[in-house]
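Protocol step 6 of 9: fold each sequence in the batch and record its structure tokens directly after the sequence line. For illustration, a two-sequence batch is reproduced in full.

Sequence one:
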Amino acid sequence: MLKQVDLTRSLTKKAFANSLRFERQRLYDLEKMAFDAGLPSIIVFEGWDAAGKGTTIRELTRRLDPRGFKTYAIQAPRTDEMKMPWLWRFWMKIPRDGQMAIFDRSWYGRVLVERVEALTPIPDWIRAYEEINEFEQTLADDGCIFTKFWLHISREEQLRRFMLLSTDRAKAWQVSAEDWENHRKYDEYRAAVKDMLANTHTEHAPWTVVPATDMNYRQYAVLKVVIETLERALDVEPTQWPTFDELEAGTIISQPWVGDEGDRIPSRWDEEE
């Protein structure tokens, strides 16, 4: 999957701005529809350090109703979590019916950092592929919708971003010694990523590899995939997306429900308000 990614893909500021208003409104409406339908969803963000995971999540949730989603920034397990089965702490974060759970890193650390840094014995992280697939299959069978993203940048682009951050006094703290060490092991992590994508890309929980070199393209592509996934799950009229050439030419994405309160599907949230 990584070989097929065009890391040069980009979107001009004007083209991105033309699409952003629609994507935000459509996603907001779909969030409400999912809440009313009791449809739980999980959005997973994995990717290289400095690929833009946090920024992408911030933009994704900027116009959502905060009652409809929760975000989780996953770090190394704590002492009490290490006493439990390794997936236990993620089971404790699955969304309720109608809720959206957004993960900034996730259970895939088991087959990425824990593999590369030899934090987990080889038999255990190899077995984790099957355990992850069963975990996701169980949730999918219970009606949960999955969207999984790998934000991809090249080794050279990661180095460029690290250098820019490191020379900015206000942002230098964002690049740690651990980040530089991970950059040195880029090829080892890339091998782990390839195996992860090959072993956990399933029909019910597919991966989308997003070229993350250009911020505008990354954001547009992520929102588009989330919207399409929710539209299919809710069985509503799908968005008719223009081509990239049409976007660059100034075509504005428009649908009957955008900007017209009278055409929007009523929601229990509207009643509460």
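Sequence two, same batch, same settings:
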Amino acid sequence: MKLIFKCNNGRTLLMAAASSLLLAACGEANFKIKGEIDGADNVAVVLEKSDFHGRWIPVDSTRTSSSGSFTISQPAPAAPDVYRLAVDNKFIYFPIDSVESLSLKTTLADFSSAYTISGSEKAESMARFDKEVLALPANISADSLDSFKRNVYSKYIKDAQGSIVGYYVLTKTIGETPLFDPDNDYKYFAAVATGFKELRPNDPHTRLLEKTSVDAMRRRNSNRGAARQIEAEEIKVIDIELPDENGTNRRLSDYVGNGKPTVVMFTVLTHPESPAANLELSKLYERMGRNVNFYQVSLDPDQYAWRDAARNLPWITVFDADGEYSRAARDYNVSNLPTYFIYDAQGELKARAASVSELSKQL
């Protein structure tokens, strides 16, 4: 069956594989930002975009009219991205998902601090965040800054997985200092990386977030390993010790680094989708000739139902009575279930996966 799309100009097109091509054919593949800058007469306004290396590259420019108005239009990005407007070395940041039309009002004197932007919820959200950052005191204490970051996570990241606003929040700098540091704030990076991986697997921001998150976890893992020893060898694992279905405590570090890859799985065995997932895991386990350690951490609310579900599984399954408040899940920055982590045969944490099919590819 052929799908037909009617353009406003009356032309009839076959539905293209890429919606951007279709929009281009209809003359609608641009985003636009219109602005009014009070006090700006014939002032240069530059549109810039980041190149993923922290550098901002000019992509367009214009000059304001005598009344301070301007309009800039550019092709919509292939994936959501962050842009900024620059005027006299002052900047206003905003996200573009596709073909938004944004409106900006500000003054030349307070260009980057006293402005309003409308046209998309994400742009308005980003503006609120930036204003909160500007309001931070210069001598803010470490405890107050941590509290601010927790609040930012709740307001702008937690319920907006896969949003470019979350990416922007994590890459925000105050002067030359990052607001969120991957080594100290790895849990926030892991949460955003997981959301991007699930909802935007092909987005270039996803690969960067995932790499940043995994690298930070490796460094943290290495630092922990330097602090403790088991049998005079450096610990390389974020350890877990929980009871199996027979009540015997199983310690993850007893299996990691024993010459086989080890998969740490965080799941809820009594979830309706778990039997199908465990069937796929069993196939993967057998396909690898059982030459892999599976260590499954279950966060089930019902221990008795969990025990019945765990009894017939051929790998190690342990129960975490803390459930959603699991310390192990917190240590591994788990924000979605199921989530899988892979240690290589030497005991190095190498990757994380959000599905069995992804886990299979990683292994």
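Proceed to step 7 once all outputs are recorded. Observation for sequence two: Residues 1-27, 226-235 have pLDDT under 50 and may be disordered.
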